[in-house]
Amino acid sequence: MVNSRSNKKLTSLKRQPLILLIFSSISFLLILFRLIFLQLLNYESFKKMSDENRIRLIATQPIRGRILDKDGNVLANSRVKYSLILKPQSVNESSWDKHKSSICDLLKVDINVIQKKYLYGLRNKQLSVTILDDLNVDQLIKFKENEDNLSSFEIATKLIRNYPYKSLAAHLIGYTQPITDSEYKFLSSKGYRLNDLIGRTGIEYVFEDSIRGEWGGEMVEVNSLGKFQKSLGRKPSTQGNDIELTIDINLQLVAEELLKDKKAGAIIVMDPRDGAVRAMASKPTFDLNFFSQDFKPEKEYNKIFNSAEKPLFNRALNAYDPGSVWKIVTALAGLESGKFPIDTLLETKPCITYGSQCFREHNDLGFGVIGYEDALRVSSNTFFYQVGYGVGVDEINEVSRKLGFNSLSGIEISEQENKGFVASSQWAENGRGWGEPGRTPWVPEDIASMSIGQFVVQVTPIQIARAYAAIANGGYLVTPYLVKKDGEDFSDKRRTKIDFDPKNIQLIKSGLRKVVQSGTGVSINYGVSNLPPVSGKTGTAEDGEGGLDHAWFVCFTPSENSELLIVAFAQNTPGGGSVHALPMAREILKVWNEKK
């Protein structure tokens, strides 16, 4: 029994070296395979990780391109902000106390603040920390004069967006803001960095890819403790492309000045031949430099974002009741339909009843028997009621679409644009946007309102500019544009022939000329000398939302071969287009004529 136990024990002892050998061999093979995996199969990945631990990049901000007017005047550029920085890991400790005291005395900085930021940078292995942000000129000069004795400190520059004219053309230029964390997730692949600037509105937004530039930086080598070793090279940041606008700064300045005494409104100045926008002003407006501030005061923030006046709202691209400036659409509908040809004469009356309502003439008398030209000249309501009622809603709707209404204009800053609204019988049949289909049909009162641009018609100033440009240029619908492109001829690309009878276009043009010669727009000539012949149309519109009346005036000059078109709009400014809108257009004509 004893021998049996001894044999088993002996056998177990003999097996132990074998088990140990097998275990050691397996362990060795596992280590070998792991080394092969790390050194051969995953070499590139670990090399990259090693380099990232050894090499750091100190980025330099891209230089955003400028925005210029048509003559090269700077509307937006980048201003350099100077900051005092310290590179904690490259500080010479033996001279630190001396340099710290010197910068404290020189620039009037709290010595404890400097020391605190220095220690913070060391503790968190920061390559640089900011001691003073946005140095003033005196501080910068003092530092430069003593720079040789302040080797621990450097001046860092940061580019911020700058708008020399503050609120000038704010809505069309637009502004920039830092990208958000959520945006960074997909913009990082395009070269953006956290807190990088990006265009939010206007030209800054639309031409972001062209205008933003590219980041540069300095590549530095650090040791295993994160301490600076040497510079491996610099790549300068790249400036973005300049954007040259069609805007004429002289016309833009006067347009914005003219709106200052208005509650709200817009002015558009455009070349009717190809749609080049020479000025686009909207009131209320805002200072673009607000968005370049690191700290934004609450009062200023609320004034821009939470104000009932909505200063960020571009009135030039928003829709309103057009009133009598719409009458050219009703006139063309009558002419093009053939139901009211060129030689049509209609009796105007104190009022005409449609449905249950008597729609009045604006002078409460009528103008006798008149044709198209005189109807435009005196802006007769009852003449156009009869034409509109005779052709019907859908004929007016069709003509309006050919003139560019009920659609976006094609201007670059379309993110701010409202396509407006022009009613149709189908719209009424479908419920007018609020009722049940079949229970809100088209009624006689609708056509009377539509005929003179009220309630069932909402259009933007830029759409009015396109429609009147088609009259001025002989029947071509233009696409408004803000950005010049060298070497490209836009005369054909940006305009489309409308299939209107040229005789009908000419009749409307003759009527608009009479408006200025002896009609509601005659005061355009007051106080202006040597002005080429002007054609135009006044308009007073009831506000469909219940506010005070709007005032409109549209004109183009010279009446033949026109070079300039103006749309002046004063929102909720009762008194008539000839009183409030026309004088604004007159002042712009003066400036344009003097410059020409």
What are the defining features of this structure?
596 residues; 23 strands; Penicillin-binding protein 2a (Domain 2); 19% strand; alpha+beta; elongated
Characterise this structure:
This protein is an alpha+beta fold. It has two domains: 57-244, Penicillin-binding protein 2a (Domain 2); 249-299 and 313-595, Beta-lactamase, CATH 3.40.710.10. The protein is 39% helix and 19% strand. A hairpin with a 2-residue loop joins strand 14 and strand 15 (357-360). The protein starts with a helix and ends with a helix.
Q: Return the CATH class of the largest domain.
A: Alpha Beta
Strand tally, please? 23
Q: Poorly predicted ranges (pLDDT <50, ≥5 residues)?
A: none
Q: Give the helix/strand class.
A: alpha+beta
Rg, Å, rounded: 36 Å
CATH superfamily of the largest domain: DD-peptidase/beta-lactamase superfamily
Strand content is 15-25%
Taken together, the total number of domains comes to: 2
What is the CATH topology descriptor of the largest domain?
Beta-lactamase
**Integer average pLDDT:** 88
N-to-C span: 128 Å
Relative helix content: 25-40%
CATH architecture of the largest domain: 3-Layer(aba) Sandwich
- Summed up, the helix count is 22
